[in-house]
Design a protein that fits this description.
The structure holds two protein chains of two kinds. By secondary structure, chain A is α+β, with helices and mostly antiparallel strands. Chain A folds into three domains: 150 residues, 2-Layer Sandwich (Beta-Lactamase); 125 residues; 147 residues, Heat Shock Protein 90 (2-Layer Sandwich). Chain A is built from nine helices and twelve strands. In chain A, the strands form three sheets. In chain A, strands 2-1-5-4-3 form a five-stranded antiparallel beta sheet. A five-stranded mixed beta sheet of chain A has the order 7-9-10-12-11. The longest helix of chain A has 76 residues. By secondary structure, chain B is of the alpha/beta class. Chain B has a single domain, classed as 3-Layer(aba) Sandwich (Rossmann fold). In chain B, the strands form two sheets. Chain B has an eight-stranded mixed beta sheet, sandwiched between helices. A two-stranded antiparallel sheet of chain B has the order 1-9. In chain B, α2 crosses α3. The longest helix of chain B is centred in the first third of the chain and has 14 residues. The radius of gyration of chain B is 16 Å and the shape is globular. The chains are: A alpha+beta, B alpha/beta. Chains A and B meet through α2 of A and α2, β8 and α5 of B.
Chain lengths: 499, 179
């Protein structure tokens, strides 16, 4: 609002500047009026004075004719003394036609005007200088110049008039200044204050980078309110962009976190994998080493028939190792192999697998039931691995059931087809369901149900890669059902009634 | 007497004053100028020349002649005439009665009575005898006095401008008449 000492003119507020301008303009206008009035007065008054004096000079001249002609200076002086009534006249003189001084008049000891030559063709001539006037007039009688008359006047009134005008002008100027200040005040309220508020808001915005601030558009008028609106729109724009940027940043961070978590999970899996490989492969390997040692030790004494249990053990260990390596390869494949989607009949596939299982374990009595026509648009190789894992699990966990029962089927929902494998085996504690699909987590003792612990993990990955989901329902000693979809997430409320 | 003395006096005062003219020259100039202050209310009808007449061969006549050469008064040429008898000067506009005429002043004035001539003279008591303008010496300057009474009977007036510069203006008879 007030001019700061450091800023000088640049910092002076609009209101102050306008007040000053107002005062300056009215001052100049008044000065011009004063000067023009004074000039007009000077010219007008002087002209009037010249006219009056000229008339007076003519009268005095003609009244002095006889005095000049008959050389009566006393009479001429008396005539001149009448000039005392004219307050402006300071001195006068009559000269004869031979340019000799004839009579004089002087008020308050003023200098009597000298004779000046008059132009031949003029009867009256006037000389003016400021407020001084000199009139020269020929005294003509009967067509002949008998003398000249000079009268000098000083326009005292004009000077007084100028002073009076100056006083009036000063008064008006002071009044104008007061008006200018008042107008400035009004202006400040109407225009400058909104601008000041505007400037303050702008300063706040630029200093604190707070783009949520808004200019008060209620305060200004006309262009000012348009300006504030435009600025507000700009601020809103910036604010919005800021928010978008913020959102994008949050999203990015979220993604990074997610990726990091994934990476960490992968890392953990890798660690567990390494550990399992080291630990689990060492078991059968140790057995093979031991058996080989014993075979070497008892080579001479024992018969081949004596060695048969050892050979069976050796074979079992090698088979376990081979299975583990197969599973690991499958897990690896499930993650890295490219998808080749084709229409695949999972029913046929499941039936074949179950047939193989039955052949490899002819001593078991297992009832299998495969629903026909369970088709899916899926990668056949990965589907083979999936079904192998699920059905082998079912086969394995029903080992103590007689008869065991294994069912493969599919349900049509609104979004997708839900496939399932059900058994009446050992089942599991539903509370532990989360651990089911994690690698190398076993819900049963390896001695009861041997396994690598990566089968369901592999299934989880394959289903996930197809865009589906796998989940399980189970109860200890009452069997388990494993469901999976391939192209949609788990639908709510899907449950296969127990048969 | 006075006329005889005057040239000497004037001559002595010539260097002291700004006056360059002799007494007679001044008087003749005045005589000529009087004409210009004579006003004819009915207009100067019938005036073909403005005659300034000098009685009794006064030396003024020659000075007057010099001054008025080719001059005009009231738009008519000025003539200077000399007469020996006042009776002959009745048609003149201005009649100057010289000093030599003093002995028969009354006779001359009587001869001019009823005419429209402005009578002028140097002679003392001229106004008392019924003359109109009389020259006199005041502060070594030539001045004149006026008697308006005889002017009343003529067809002209004397301008107030002239009366203003007169030493005295005698209007007694008129004032008495008015009373």
């Amino acid at each position: 609002m007030t001019p700061t000492s450091s800023g000088m003119g640049r910092r002076r507020s609009i209101a102050t500047t306008l007040t000053l301008m107002n005062a300056l303009v009215s001052g100049i206008a008044l000065l011009l009026v004063y000067v023009s009035f004074l000039t007009y007065d000077l010219i007008f008054f002087r002209q009037a004075a010249v006219q009056n004096l000229t008339a007076e000079a003519k009268i005095i001249g003609s009244n002095s004719v006889s005095a000049i002609l008959f050389d009566d200076r006393t009479s001429a002086t008396t005539t001149l003394s009448a000039l005392a009534n004219s307050s402006d006249v300071t001195a006068a003189a009559i000269y004869t036609d031979r340019d000799e001084p004839f009579a004089q008049y002087s008020a308050n000891g003023a200098v009597v005007p000298d004779r000046r030559p008059l132009p031949a063709n003029r009867e009256v001539e006037s000389w003016t200088s400021g407020t001084d006037i000199l009139i020269g007039s020929r005294i003509v009688f009967q067509g002949k110049t008998v003398g000249t008359f000079f009268v000098q006047a000083h326009l005292r009134n004009l000077r007084r008039q100028a002073l009076r005008f100056a006083a009036i002008a000063a008064g008006i100027l002071a009044f104008c200044l007061v008006i200018a200040l008042m107008v400035g005040g009004i202006f400040r309220r109407i225009l400058a204050r909104p601008i000041v508020a505007f400037a303050q808001t702008a300063r706040m915005v630029s200093r604190y980078r707070d783009y949520s601030l808004r200019f008060d558009s209620e305060q200004g008028y006309g262009e000012l309110s348009e300006l504030t609106e435009a600025f507000n729109e700009m601020l809103a724009d910036i604010h919005e962009r800021d928010a978008a940027l913020e959102r994008a940043k949050a999203e990015l961070e979220h993604t990074v976190e997610e990726r990091t978590a994934q990476l960490q999970a992968a890392n953990r899996e890798l660690e567990a994998f390494s550990y399992t490989v080291a630990h689990d492969l060492r078991g059968p390997l140790q057995t093979i080493i031991n058996v080989c040692y014993l075979l070497g030790q008892e080579e001479q004494q024992a018969t081949l028939a004596d060695k048969s249990p050892m050979l069976v053990q050796l074979r079992s260990s090698v088979t376990a190792m081979s299975q583990m390596i197969d599973d690991l390869l499958n897990l690896s494949r499930s993650t890295s192999a490219p998808l080749h989607l084709t229409e695949t009949d999972l029913s046929v596939m499941a039936a074949a697998i179950l047939k193989n299982l039955a052949e490899s374990d002819p001593n078991r009595r297992v009832e299998t039931w495969v629903h026909p026509n369970c088709n899916a648009n899926a990668d056949p190789g990965l589907m083979e691995i999936t079904l192998q894992n699920l059905l082998r699990n079912a086969w394995k966990f029903t080992g103590r059931r007689n008869p065991a029962r294994i069912e493969f089927g599919c349900l049509r929902t609104e979004t997708d087809v839900v496939f399932f494998v059900r058994d009446n085996g050992a089942g599991f504690d539903q509370r532990m369901v989360d651990r089911l699909f994690k690698p190398f987590q076993r819900l049963h003792a390896a001695s009861d149900y041997p396994g690598t612990g990566i089968g369901l993990t592999t299934v989880h990955r394959i289903v996930g890669r197809h865009g589906g989901e796998v989940w399980a329902e189970g109860e200890i000693e009452k069997g388990a059902t494993l469901y999976f979809t391939l192209h949609a997430p788990r639908p709510a409320g899907v449950h296969v009634p127990r048969t | 007497m006075l006329a005889v003395l005057l040239p000497g006096c004037l001559g002595a005062s010539l260097s002291g004053t700004e006056e360059h003219a002799s007494d007679n020259e001044v008087k003749s100039a005045y005589l000529f100028k009087f004409g210009e202050f004579v006003e004819y209310p009915q207009g100067p009808s019938g005036l073909k020349t403005f005659d300034i007449c000098v009685l009794d061969g006064d030396p003024i006549a020659s000075d007057l002649q010099k001054i008025t050469l080719n001059e005009r008064v009231h738009d008519v040429p000025v003539r200077v005439l000399r007469f020996d008898h006042a009776g002959d000067a009745r048609d003149c506009a201005v009649v100057y009665i010289g000093e030599s005429e003093s002995r028969r002043l009354d006779k001359d004035l009587a001869a001019l009575e009823g005419s429209n001539a402005l009578t002028v003279s140097d002679q003392p008591q001229f106004l008392e005898h019924g003359g109109m303008i009389q020259f006199l010496l005041e502060n070594q300057r030539i001045r004149f006095a006026v008697n308006l009474e005889p002017v009343e009977h003529t067809n002209f007036h004397l301008s107030s401008q002239l009366l203003k510069v007169a030493v005295s203006v005698n209007t007694k008879p008129r004032q008495e008449e008015k009373r």
